[in-house]
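Quick one: sequence plus S-adenosylmethionine SMILES, need structure tokens.
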Amino acid sequence: MSWIIDEIVAQGGEVFFDEYMNLVLYHPIHGYYSGDEPRYGREGDFLTAPTASEWYSRVMTRLLVRVFDQTGPLRLIDVASGDGAVISGVLETLGPRASNVLAGVVSVERSPAMRRLQRDRLAAAPVDVHWAEDVAQMVSSSDPTVIHASELYDALPVARVVGVEKSVEELAVGVQAGELVWRRRPPRREVEAYFVRHGVELEEGQVAEANLGAEPLHTRLLEAAGQRGLSLVLDYGYEAKRLFNPRGRRGGSLSTFRRHELGRDPLISPGEVDLTAHVNWDDLRDAAAHAAWREIGLWPLAEFLVRAGIAEELEDHGLGMEADLDATTITARQEVKRLLDPEGMGSDLKVLVQAKGDMVDIAQSVLSLPQ
Ligand SMILES: C[S@@+](CC[C@H](N)C(=O)[O-])C[C@H]1O[C@@H](n2cnc3c(N)ncnc32)[C@H](O)[C@@H]1O
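Reply:
Sure thing.
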């Protein structure tokens, strides 16, 4: 605990909540995401779709190939690429077709340790892999581009506010008698403006989060993709109207995760637990509007995977409905069930699909529901 207290004291004794969240997740030594090993995945604190099952990357590969059939070689940009599960899964699934289907791969990952881990994991990649710490470092390209981002936006630091009469107060984290404490402060202008922009008036005492970084980051990402782009963003979230509805989330959406257990107090065990807040999909829609991209759909993960061909992928591996019930079939079906689970990931995780240029028609055709 003392490292965070030292940091806050060094910054004047108090920081706004987004500054606190940035420290506890991304401090170069003590941050949750700064360790040498990923803290998510089957052995970790929480599952993401790519770490839940290899079938996720297989279906993603199927989608890439179907797009490639209409565009030619693609540039794949994986943002928040983590331990590189998606990139290595796609390259493995493509096998000898990789250098044909992919013009190149860009892996954008904030954590230096994860970038190092990926360099080892992908040392023998049959295509050019370029690493970047930030979307701003990406070079533009005229290649048709597919962007993939799984649980990027819900891992961004958020400001936290409490509704007061016709306005909000902003929450800050201070230090008192060697303990972290909440403080209420007048809101910064950009925080107040966030709720005005989304037409949200919070009830007295209602807590909510403002993800100030999501829209600018998504705008930069879409712009870096160029004129022929398909963007696939996987995250937990709602549109503003639902996210800030006091009947659904009067306490906000900020959660902590440790060993698959959900918690609500972000001041406990700083740097040792994941902190995450739901995405406001309207932020990413506004970004698309600025960059002249079109929305193809916002679907629960299960529906997206069905549209992208998960049933056909299982058939192609001899694991469809007719398959013998041996150990391989049972294991594959269990993994697929985890991704499609209507009580879990399959409905809680959403996929926002946006496209630009000729990718609009292509995305609509490859993601139409199978007849
Ligand atoms: C919840 S993990 C998701 C990892 C992976 N995409 C998955 O689904 O398994 C979030 C990752 O986002 C990375 N990250 C956070 N902000 C980022 C940013 N602005 N640019 C690139 N990566 C970022 C973190 O370092 C972390 O590896």
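The first helix runs from residue 2 to 10. The chain has one domain: 49-157+211-366.
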